[in-house]
Amino acid sequence: MFKIWARIEKEHKIVKQITYESDRKFAWGEFFNYLADICEELDCATPILLKTHIFSYAKFNRVRFLPRDFAETVNFDYLVLENIVL
After folding, report:
1. C-alpha 6: how far from its chain's center?
2. Which of the four pLDDT bands, split at 50, 70 and 90, describes residue 86?
3. Most distant CA pair in the chain: distance in Å?
4. Residue from 82, 84, 55, 51 nearest 69 by CA
5. What angle do CA 64, 30, 43 make, to 5 degrees?
6. I need a surface site. Which of 40, 67, 76, 79 has the fewest CB within 10 A?
7. Cα 31 from Cα 13, distance rounded (Å)
8. Rounded distance, CA 66 to CA 69, Å?
9. Confidence of residue 47 (pLDDT cuts 50, 70, 90)
10. What pLDDT, on the 0 to 100 scale, is given for residue 85?
11. Closest by alpha carbon to 37, among 13, 86, 2?
12. What is the reported pTM?
């Protein structure tokens, strides 16, 4: 079981947030699927996932996506995913 706190920030304020939960065991190969589910719930575009994003999440339990990480134009400053340690 794992939980991810996802939030959209604009001008240093949280615009939207959700807590993504799954009863399955966390798998790195499924990280893009988790990200796609989170973005669908937040009603935003899915960013392009790079190795640096995965490494940041693995090392710091947090990853931040900037507007340049999206193929579409977005109207927020950051999409932040943070691991909730149980």
Report:
1. 5
2. confident
3. 35
4. 51
5. 55
6. 40
7. 26
8. 5
9. very high
10. 85
11. 2
12. 0.91
Both tokens of 50, joined, read 């790079």
The three-state secondary structure class of 36 is helix
> What are 32-40's contacts with CB under 8 Å, separation 24+?
34/4, 35/81, 38/4, 38/6, 38/81, 39/79
Report helix, strand or coil for 62: strand
What's the pLDDT score for residue 80? 98
- What is the spatial distance between Cα 18 and Cα 85, in angstroms, rounded to a whole number? 16
- The encoded tokens of residue 42 equal 């937040």
Report the pLDDT averaged over residues 2-16. Answer: 97
Q: What angle do CA 3, 9, 15 make, to 5 degrees?
A: 85
- Residue 62: per-residue pLDDT: 97
